[in-house]
Amino acid sequence: MKNIIVPIDFSEQSEHALKVAASLAKKHGSEILALHMLELNQAMVSSSEGFHPEQTVFLIKLAEKRFSDFLDKPYLKGITITPIVKHFKVFSEVNQVAKKHNAELIVMGSHGTDGLKEIFVGSNAEKVVRNATIPVLVIKDEMPDFKIDRFVFACDFRDDNLLAFQKAKDFAKMLSAKLDLVYINTPGDNFLSTKDAYDRINKFLRKSNTGMEVEIYNDYSVEKGILNYSEMSGADIIGISTHGRKGLSHFFMGSIGEDLANHSKIPVVTFKISN
């Protein structure tokens, strides 16, 4: 793993993510791209009325100083850190940074959101998950030694998940973690008999050239099933593919990957499904 992006907003959560990224960087010889997005809009930067350009420069310099102080941590010693400051909070810019620097992973801190705030605002981690084309690892709590033994990857075993599944296998191998595959069976229109479920799973595994066992777990919703199965099996991390839906499609259909990023107490890593 060559480069890791860590979005920084100076919060406790972003420091949790930075520590995990530092642990990964030391193990794999990676560089950390520390990304800070300022809350400046175009009017503030370009307007000559009501807001002076020198004030904008002052705010940018102030943020850069705070950024530099934030990155002056003992646990970052010996790691190559590249600070990147963007002037606007546009989450699609994370992809531009990833492409420019050949980054392979985003490590993101999150405290999660619930209720109306989640529906109308969402968390920054959710927005990064929705926009990112590379895997996003979402961290909730401090993990001084990021050691992953059991990695649960939840999948519906449809063909469009083949690339995401391969990325999940590579990620588990990188972490030296045991990969645990699960299919969540839910009531209603998505319900499959055991035979139909295994027919789909076996077809998928043949196409992926993978000989692994898959657990079928029944629950009332996919999200609850993943969370309950992961808790029952003692998972250290949850992996899932995400469509990254946007606009009205996202509002009405949502994304299980984004919901898990918000609600899971253990780390979640998402892998974008190629459209």
Summary?
With 275 residues, the chain is an alpha/beta fold.
Architecture overview:
This protein has 275 residues and is an alpha/beta fold. It folds into two domains: 1-144, Rossmann fold, CATH 3.40.50; 147-275, HUPs (Rossmann fold), CATH 3.40.50.620. 43% of the residues lie in helices and 21% in strands. It has helices at 12-28, 42-46, 53-70, 93-101, 115-120, 124-131, 162-175, 194-207, 222-233, 247-253, 256-263, and strands spanning 3-7, 31-37, 81-86, 103-109, 136-139, 150-154, 178-185, 214-218, 237-242, 268-272. Strands 3-2-1-4-5-10-9-6-7-8 form a ten-stranded mixed beta sheet, sandwiched between helices. Helix 6 (124-131) runs antiparallel to helix 11 (256-263). The longest helix is centred in the first third of the chain and has 18 residues, at 53-70. The model is unreliable at 114-122 and 247-254 (pLDDT under 50).
What is the CA-atom radius of gyration, in angstroms?
20 Å
Report, as a whole number of angstroms, the end-to-end distance: 24 Å
Indicate the overall shape: elongated
Helix-and-strand structural type: alpha/beta
**H-E order:** EHEHHEHEHHEEHEHEHEHHE
- Main pleated sheet: 10 strands, mixed
> How many domains in all?
2
Task: Assign the CATH class of the largest domain.
Answer: Alpha Beta
Helix content: 40-55%
Number of strands: 10
Per DSSP, the total helix count is 11
Overall average pLDDT: 83
Estimate the strand proportion: 15-25%
> Please, what is the CATH homologous superfamily of the largest domain?
HUPs
Instruction: Fill in the CATH topology of the largest domain.
Output: Rossmann fold
Strand order of the largest sheet: 3-2-1-4-5-10-9-6-7-8
Given as residue ranges, the uncertain stretches (5+ residues, pLDDT < 50) are 114-122, 247-254
CATH architecture grouping of the largest domain: 3-Layer(aba) Sandwich
Pfam families: Usp (PF00582)
Family: Belongs to the universal stress protein A family.
Protein name: Universal stress protein
Domain UspA: 1-140, 149-271
